[in-house]
């Protein structure tokens, strides 16, 4: 099971991932004795600077889970996306980048033994679904207010247990997530947070997301769960 709340050894580490022609950056937390790594990505690729992703990452780290909050766009690409909003909807690009990061962690001596989960927000959730469909190393997926519908043809190919968390006062995403639930063939659940809108800014809403996320990864990323599933 996960380490107790307040697990030690989870200091923030800045990581760079060098690929052919570009570099991605992320923030890594590795609590002592962790058995898993949750990779967190956001809509515009700017998960590295997204406060809600860091909130979730800090919660997971306090519960003994390794986390990597990673950008899927370079700094130049992020500036362009801030002006145009185009790249955040380029799901093939984001999914390719996330797949590269997953593969990079599998080659890293410090990370390769950890079981991998994915956490995606907004269109980052679609990238997570596509990457999960491609990679047998992904053990679980969580979407927060995610456009999982944009994963389209990849959805029936996802084998990793998938949790979608959506605000009750976010009707469009709730409808789209319900459609995704009908398309998925894996173990899956749709959780609706009462009184929450798309960004979960309401008091206690993001804490509910963190709790649901932590419970899902505890259930599907640890040895005991893997042996009984």
TrEMBL record:
Signal peptide: none annotated. GO terms for molecular function: hydrolase activity. This is Alpha/beta hydrolase. Gene3D superfamilies: alpha/beta hydrolase. It holds the Pfam family DLH. It comes from the Bacteria. Keywords: Hydrolase. Residues 31-205 form the Dienelactone hydrolase domain. InterPro entries: AB_hydrolase_fold, Dienelactn_hydro, FrsA_esterase.
């Amino acid at each position: 099971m996960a380490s107790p709340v307040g697990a030690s050894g989870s200091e923030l580490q800045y990581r760079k991932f060098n690929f052919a022609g570009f570099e991605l950056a992320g923030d890594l937390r590795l609590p002592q004795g962790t058995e898993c790594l949750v990779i967190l990505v956001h809509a515009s690729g700017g998960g590295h600077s997204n406060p809600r992703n860091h909130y979730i990452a800090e919660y997971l780290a306090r519960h003994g889970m390794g986390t990597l909050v990673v950008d899927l766009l370079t700094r130049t690409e992020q500036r362009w996306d801030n002006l145009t909003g185009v790249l955040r909807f380029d799901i093939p690009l984001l999914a390719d980048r996330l797949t590269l990061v997953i593969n990079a962690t599998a080659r890293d001596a410090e990370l390769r033994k950890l079981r991998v989960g994915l956490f995606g927000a907004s269109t980052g959730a679609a990238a997570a679904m596509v990457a999960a469909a491609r990679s047998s190393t992904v053990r679980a997926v969580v979407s927060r207010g995610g456009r999982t519908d944009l994963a389209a043809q990849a959805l029936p190919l996802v084998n990793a247990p998938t949790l979608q968390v959506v605000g009750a006062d976010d009707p469009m995403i709730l409808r789209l997530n319900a459609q995704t639930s009908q398309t998925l063939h894996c173990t899956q659940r749709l959780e609706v947070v009462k009184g929450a809108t798309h960004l979960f800014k309401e008091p206690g809403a993001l804490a509910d997301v963190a709790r649901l996320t932590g419970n899902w990864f505890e259930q599907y990323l640890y040895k005991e769960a893997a042996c009984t599933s």
